[in-house]
Amino acid sequence: MSVINTIKKAAFIASSLILAFSLQGCPWVDPDYQFDYDIIITDTPANLEGLNSNYNDYNSDLPFEAARMDIYFSTDRNSYGDEFDIIARCLDMSYHERDDVLNITIPQNAGESMLDRKLLPLINTGYDQLGPYTYFEGGGLNYFFYAGNESEDNPSGDFDIQFVYTPRLDWGTSNGQQRLYGPFKADPANSDADDLYPVIGEDLGKFLFCSNRENDAFDIYSFDLGQGPLFHDFLSGTYDPVITKEEVLSGEGNDKCPSLYGNYLVFASDREGGYGGFDLYYSKYENNAWSQPVNFGSKINSANDEYRPVAFSFLDFSLLIFSSDRPGGKGGFDLYCVDISDIIDVPVGDHYWGY
Hints:
Elements: H1 3-10, E1 39-40, E2 46-47, E3 57-61, E4 68-75, E5 85-96, E6 101-105, H2 114-123, E7 129-137, E8 141-148, E9 160-167, E10 181-185, E11 195-201, E12 206-214, E13 217-224, H3 231-236, E14 244-245, E15 255-261, E16 264-269, E17 279-286, E18 289-290, E19 294-295, E20 306-314, E21 317-324, E22 334-339
Antiparallel strand pairs: 1-6, 2-22, 3-4, 4-5, 5-6, 7-8, 8-9, 9-10, 11-12, 12-13, 13-14, 15-16, 16-17, 17-18, 17-19, 20-21, 21-22
């Protein structure tokens, strides 16, 4: 199946669970230091060349910010274009105040973490895995969500939202048991159609995702998080929630890949009024309602497809990683990063090391 057919019909893209490290403090730096910049991030999208291949490199997710961040995304490089797997790579980020430069470097030989070596073979199959998303549950469990179209009980090939969970202290501690549970189906969200790209809004008390369960067009849906004592039991149990279509976020076309950033939701849509194919949009949640979606504009969107946006903060920057098949990439869809600080406010939160 071609990428464009995948995008136009159901378009899928992926990304992440992660245990990156954060560096505390702000070390003294020689003002005359020499630094070879690699990928300079501005308000014009920059290709993350070290992550990309000649195939399709899709959907990413960043569970938290640090000087080094792990990034998980979907790619069909391993099968030479046949199906999508989720892989893990690293980003090294640094801000250079002297030159007012935000830089990203892609380390080439960072190696797989112990978690990656166990998680990725568990979730990757001979089918497609898309839309990874990491959720750190307050009770000490980490959840890795994604959508897959495999298994004997899913002969139609529809995508279902699935998850794996692990005790947080099982990794990086001397007595960690490295336990992974799953994969399980997130039954409250799944239907006989395609259900993908979950995101959990704790402040909203909602589980959001996209689905083509109505009229074969993708819309954004949600249900309330009446999770009870164990979130994984809530997701894989017999709970039958009221599924609500988010009418303000769902237009006449396909609205996909919701991702939360503070009280903003960013997503991809091929609705009328865009610049061509799928464009990236944002909406703000205030006064218990979503604002009308706003197109990110021609600096970010192109006449080609822009897909699976994930927003995050580093220092005082608001950044967006997304995928696009615009001209000038390595081939297929590539991952890009852009500074959106002038468009979306930085949420209040921790600041991280930079120089």
